[in-house]
Specification:
This protein is of the alpha/beta class and 141 residues long. A hairpin with a 2-residue loop joins strand 2 and strand 3. It has a domain of 77 residues: Nucleotidyltransferase, domain 5 (2-Layer Sandwich). Helix content is 40%, strand content 16%. It has a five-stranded mixed beta sheet with strand order 3-2-1-4-5. The radius of gyration is 39 Å and the shape is elongated.
């Protein structure tokens, strides 16, 4: 019986964690990093040029093309002929960034005139074409 009692005493589980080895390892790593950090910064000293790195955001021009009820086309409130319209659109398409075209068509204009202007814009190579309408609250019969 005496033998069994001594065996039970040795089987006790140790409930405490020994932190000493962990602290020793952490201190050694800290010392290594403190010594190694100055050695990592062995770059060549260069006087770099100064430049403004801000990205300049260019906003594209907005051109308003209006088609009145008689089918006449206006370039930003200036009456323009069909030949001049095509030439102006080609010139505008060459700009960087390309302008945005806002197309305003009278509600009584034949659809054919609006389609001709849309086709001229696409043939010129302009990528952004939008339509401007009146809000429904302002709509009068």
């Amino acid at each position: 019986m005496l033998f069994n009692n001594s065996q039970e005493d040795n089987d006790e589980v140790m409930s405490e964690i020994n932190m000493t080895p962990l602290v020793d390892v952490m201190l050694v790593l800290l010392i290594i990093f403190i010594i190694a950090m100055p050695l990592l910064n062995h770059a060549i000293t260069i006087d770099l040029p100064k430049e403004d790195n801000q990205v300049s955001k260019l906003t594209p021009e907005t051109i308003i093309l209006s088609v009145n009820k008689n089918g006449k086309v206006y370039w930003n409130k200036q009456l323009i002929s069909a030949a001049s319209l095509q030439q102006q659109l080609k010139t505008a398409a060459d700009h960087k960034p390309q302008p945005q075209i806002h197309l305003r068509g009278d509600r009584h204009v034949d659809y054919e005139y609006v389609v001709k202007v849309m086709t001229a814009v696409r043939h010129a190579g302009i990528q952004k074409l939008g339509f401007i309408t009146e809000p429904l609250a302002n709509y009068k019969n």
